[in-house]
Amino acid sequence: MAVQKLPLAKALNESLRKALETDPKVLIMGLDVGKLGGVFRITDGLQKDFGEERVIDTPLAESGIVGTAIGLALRGYRPVVEIQFDGFVFPAYDQIVSQLAKMRARSLGTVKMPIVIRIPYGGGIGAVEHHSESPETLFAHVAGLKVVTPANSNDAYWMLQQAIQSDDPVIFFEPKRRYWDKSEVDTEAIPGELHEARIAREGTDLTLAAYGPMVKTCLEVAAAAAEEGKSIEVVDVRSISPLDFDTIQASVEKTRRLVVVHEAPVFFGSGAEIAARITERCFYHLEAPVLRVGGYHAPYPPARLEEEYLPGLDRVLDAVDRSLAY
């Protein structure tokens, strides 16, 4: 077995390398992805090994980058676009939601849009607004887009492979503050389907559902709760659109309680959809209302305040205690 321990960032780099080696139609494009290797070095070394026609440094023009990728997809290529930071995607938002997301339906399925848009997202790196946002719900609301996010290195490697192989556009959110976290990657054993949730830790008293950067936080919460005799199950949602409600439902039917956690603001966040759907599906199983923990409905704060803004161990544990108190 080809198992090695890699930082999440390196797993993404290896995944892109594998995709470039496997399919000559795969292209990588974005600001500073070539000579610099990306601001987080996710594309480090790829232009040197595959050339400037496969790993393309673009002008600072996100709308133009995505528009060019759409044209390349129409000609049979599989572009992988990097948006340097989460908040930089909005100049390309019109291209993504008005063109990219609609092209396949508009053509009655005759036109494929195999484009992956990689977006480092979330806080925790001491950056300012436009560098620490969590805009996943804006894209999950748009029919025609798939929205996924890995929480560990193995998922980063395989989910990116699966996204690149998809004939539909995929918004691939990368939890930037987890880039340097190491975990095992098995480059031979393919995990589950791209849009399947997974049980990250089994438990019996309460379910924590999270994705991306918050999965590690929830695993820490489960470990802390275990010291007090509480058994917490952690579901890594992995795919935000489509959402694997069945896995979450099966967990909640067992534990009878659910707390949903994400960095994005709670107000109109993806946790609201999970809470509503699970309440509908599990009404007679629930022993407490579904609770949500997330960011505040406010602009992202200066770096010195982000620890107060981001959901942490104490805020999630408080929600766990409130749920178990019912």
Automatic annotation (TrEMBL):
InterPro entries: THDP-binding, Transketo_C/PFOR_II, Transketolase-like_Pyr-bd, Transketolase_C. SUPFAM superfamilies: Thiamin diphosphate-binding fold (THDP-binding), TK C-terminal domain-like. Residues 6-181 form the Transketolase-like pyrimidine-binding domain. Keywords: Oxidoreductase, Thiamine pyrophosphate. Its cofactor is thiamine diphosphate. It comes from Streptomyces zaomyceticus. It comes from the Bacteria. PANTHER family: PYRUVATE DEHYDROGENASE E1 COMPONENT BETA SUBUNIT, PYRUVATE DEHYDROGENASE E1 COMPONENT SUBUNIT BETA. Pfam families: Transket_pyr, Transketolase_C. The keyword Oxidoreductase applies. This is Alpha-ketoacid dehydrogenase subunit beta.
